[in-house]
Amino acid sequence: MEEEEEKKGESASSDGARPWQSYHTVYTNAKAGMEGVDKEKVQRVVYEMSKGSKYFENEERKEAFIRQKIERMRARSAKLTAAELAHYQTVADKRILELEATRDLSKVWLHVDMDAFYAAVETLSDPSLKGRPMAVGGMSMISTANYEARRFGVRAAMPGFIARKLCPELVFVPVDFEKYTYYSGLTRKVFQRYDPNFIAASLDEAYLDITEVCKERGVSAGEVAEELRNTVFGETGLTCSAGVAANRLLAKIGGIGKVTEHILTDVFGISTCEEMLQKGGYLCSLFSRSSADFFLSVGLGIGGTDPPQMRLRKSISNERTFQATDNEALLYQKLDELAELLSSDMQKEGLHGRTLTLKLKTSSFEVRTRALTLQNYISSRDDIYKHASKLLKAELPISLRLIGLRVSQFKEDKVGAPSDPTQKTLLSFMSADASGNFIKGQSSLGSETSNTLSMNDLGDDISVETHEMIDSESENPLVQNDASDPTRSCTWIEFAGKTEGMHEHVNDSTMDKTDAFIEKSDPKSHQLENPNGRGQDSSLPHTSETSSCLNQKDNDHYLLQGETSSRHEEQVLWINDYECSLCGIELPSSFVEERQEHADFHLAERLQKEESGMDSRTLIAGKRYHSLAYLRLVSGRHRSRLKAKINTRSASHCLRTDIFR
DNA sequence: GGAGTAAGGGCTG
DNA sequence: AAAGCCAGCCCTTACTCC
How far is the CA of A264 from the C1' of B7 (A)? Predict the structure, then answer.
């Protein structure tokens, strides 16, 4: 069926007789309990129920994008010369041998998957559901369908209204996570008896290393699997399936979904593991090393024999879908609710993060994310809301159907890593380079270094890959805090009136963004360069206060006290009371905070250059702190960097960090 | 030029 | 009328530092 679809999928309009065949969904893929389903009918119904909707239009856009990707890969594949291909085939063969050498047959893995878990739990609590087609979820989305419903083509991740069309007598039961968590706990108690370190992939899936059990009891893996299934049933009343293999990949081959399958079959004609190996040369030439390795491993059936790693949470998020709206008050209200929820979740786990990501889904199903990395760690609702609303503000006006918030880059003390290791690292860093480069070391404030840390404190010897944060709140007395909470934010750019048209580019290709901005900004920079231009007229009011303030920078007094930015603003002149004399950004006077941030940014830029000494050689003594004079003297290269920086929304307002460079 | 970092997008389960 | 939520990982691009 796939092959037939692929051919027709070339052009959505070419198959007018059966247009549904070019609408790719995952709803007809193989899934337990779906044997014998009339796939053609499902495909048609899904198409009929979908066509014309905004969701459908977005799917078509995505589909077109994938087709382009496939075309590009095909073109690259076709361009490969015989010599190149031979080379990459050698690379692939070598890699296959290397991977083969890592094959570990000493382990016995069991992949346990609860059958239609949510639906089965619901049937336990309401036996009248037994034997009737039933789905857990609602009209908009189904989480799980029981086997009776699957026979109609109803399945997880399918909208309820489509499911009901496929199966009019379908019974809907609302989701009840507490119930599923409880039953999941019961199953896990059983798993634990076979492997205390089993890996829970989700509420209803787990990987168990049963090597030891098999050895100790002298039983086969199949016997253990059978016994485990019976025990689970006995203790929960739920059934499960179990797959046995020498590694987790074989116990359950995952990682290749709709899109990847599409690409593999369409570009390379790969649909089996064997073909994956045969066409290894193509895979190695067109994919990254890690991707090619993954595909070759899948072809070889290698992977996932390593002991379970202690996984540290890397992010925490929430998102809510609602009736699409462009009502800004409503959107901010939703954002506030999410901030509160997220903050509460974070506090439950004692998490503090410094990267905040806002996720948006427009009413036309386009997904955007906007992120900012802060100098300080946050977890409070107010902080989350404050920064998130800046990100949202930059996108207005907009009609949304979903808002999400995510916090990542956590402070490490949560995992029980004592503060000492952080200190030690910083100190060892210092001692490793005691030649005054400590200042440089501090430029990595807030940056991550990967480190392997023995987690003895957690009561086991597992060596865990973790991230060590050298943060601004570390207890190192040499690292002082700035109370002004400078952020890496670009919210002010939205007021520039120069971003129109940028958002349209954002999702196409990142390359467009810089060009678009620089093009629009250049006239302004020319004005600055032109001694007769407007920039010249707007020389700075260089007050004695400002001067003395800035001249104190050498002893860090100025910065480390967390001076508010009201003084900095005097460095920037607002032409006609709205246009920045330095870069032309437009900011009405009512945007007090944004103006201060903007001024901070210019100050940081200037001081950064001062510290680096890169451009100071070109400065005229006595004029070092005159912004305009300074800006005229710095290289054009730097100006374009600055503009790019502004445009890529990573404009740094971080005084403290930058000054240490 | 390479490594590291950040941001944005996407795929997968 | 109506297409979820969450987390991890990968890729690409841009930029900075060495």
Answer: 29
